[in-house]
Amino acid sequence: MLYFTLASKAYVRNLQYRAAHLLHNVASVLFGYMYACIWIGIGEETSLGAYGVQGMTSYIAFTQASLWISGFATMGLGIPQSVRTGQIALDLMRPVHLFPHLMSREWGQIAYQFTYKSIPIYLIYFVLFDLKVPRHWSTWLATCCALILAGYLSICINYVIGVTSIWTTESNWLYWTHHALINLLAGFFIPIEWLPHWMQSLCWFMPYPYLLYVPTRIYLELGAIHSLIGSLIWCVLLTLFCIYLTKRLRLKVEVQGG
Amino acid sequence: MIPFKPWLKLYMILIRSSLQSRMQYKFNFILSTMLAAMIQIAEFLMVALVLYKFGAIRGWTVYELGYLFAIMTLSKTIYRSLASDVHHLENYLVEGQLDQLLTRPVPVLFALMTQNFRLMLGEILQGSFLLIWSMRHMMNSGQLHAMSIPYTLLMILSGATILFAIGLATASAGFWTTRIQELQTLTEDAAQTAAKYPLHIYPSWLKSFFLFVVPVGFVNYVPSLFILHGEYGLWLLLITVGVSLLLLILSLQFWSYGLSKYQSTGS
């Protein structure tokens, strides 16, 4: 119940900025539209493999909408800010573990972003382009699971980024590096099978493909559902790592008066 | 009329102190510089990998795209280095910090431009490397010639002026709206990303938007038509410079007008 309250509070807090966020959606749609134009341009001269032009516009539309679930989490789950202000000491004193506490808040954020960003953005693309949509209900179900796992992975990665701020004083740059890696290794703009071989191998040793590529392939009915096992394994590994980091964080935190 | 030299001297002193304060955290400074370069390279790799796989995008080769990309990066670097906090005006408006700048015996824009000076080494390294790499290849193939170098330098300077003017006009809107981040995503982030690609890949309405509404097309695409493809003539370059100066004047006037309407958010 506590975790649900934390999540719903984060959701409600965001509702105040709905108008500004809807304006932001225009820019977000524009980004995806530009990427789709690039693929349409390429598709005029070359075949786009199993996807085709329609498949690639559908791919870009889906990844652009999914970014708000698995790409744009709160930077470091707000930990760097807490470290700067000293709030982290109070957060660690609460009778609830820091990791699920921050995770619940972030789920509220993701739920909001899904409702007010992902869905409107995808609907606009649906009107602008001729998009492929799943024909089987099982695909819808598998896509939902893939997106939930992707959201969970994104929260874990951001938790790790946030916790590093206790050693590095700021984790802004790690956050932006994470974004650059999403662009390149999560299949955000280029499907992973079109990357050079060494890069493909590198991708599959990281959680990045499970953030966007795997959910998108499942949605487009090009990927197998059993690839979700990979997502699950990464979720378990990162959860253990986050719990371990919290222990280290407790030992490192210093209260410097005030 | 106040002489230019003392202002420049004052500017350099303020920039130096701003830089010194950033260098207090050396590890952070070095790490952020390296990561910024990595981010830039990853961004270009995203497109380069597509070209590696599929060849050209509507007739533009990877070298031409690298050139467009590098011009945008370097122009943006000059703008964001010299006027970092123009882009972050929202923080000043929301937290009422602009009131402090208003009390200083220098113009507000000048005071703002000397705050938090950023030496964007990562972007400079990435942009310069990409520019030299693409220009060298195009010079070897005879597509570019010796005059292309001064033309390119002029293009980078006029590009920085255009981006500064767009950034300043967007920031000025904050005097009425207070929050400008969403608008900046559209007029700066999305527009700059769009202009890293040749504008003719977009439908005509979007192309016109980036030429006449948020004129980022003049930063790299329009002058490149002449420099890379020899289209239209040298006057295209002159028009670009003219557009950059006109935008600068208009944005400065808009800034002054906005500042005269400024109301503090209070404490």
β-strand amount of chain B: under 5%
How many individual helices of chain B? Answer: 13
Shape annotation of chain A = globular
- Measured as a percent range, the helix fraction of chain B is over 70%
Termini of chain A, distance in Å?
34 Å
Query: How would a crystallographer describe the biggest sheet of chain A?
Result: none
Q: What is the rounded Rg of chain A?
A: 19 Å
Q: How many helix segments of chain A?
A: 11
The description of the largest β-sheet of chain B is: none
Strand content of chain A: under 5%
Q: What's the arrangement of secondary structure elements?
A:
The complex is a heterodimer of chains A (258) and B (267).
Chain A: H1 2-15, H2 18-45, H3 52-70, H4 79-85, H5 87-93, H6 98-128, H7 137-168, H8 172-185, H9 197-203, H10 213-219, H11 228-252
Chain B: H1 4-22, H2 26-54, H3 62-82, H4 84-87, H5 89-95, H6 98-102, H7 108-113, H8 121-140, H9 148-177, H10 181-194, H11 204-213, H12 221-229, H13 235-260
Helix pairs in contact in B: 2-3, 2-8, 3-8, 3-9, 9-10, 9-13
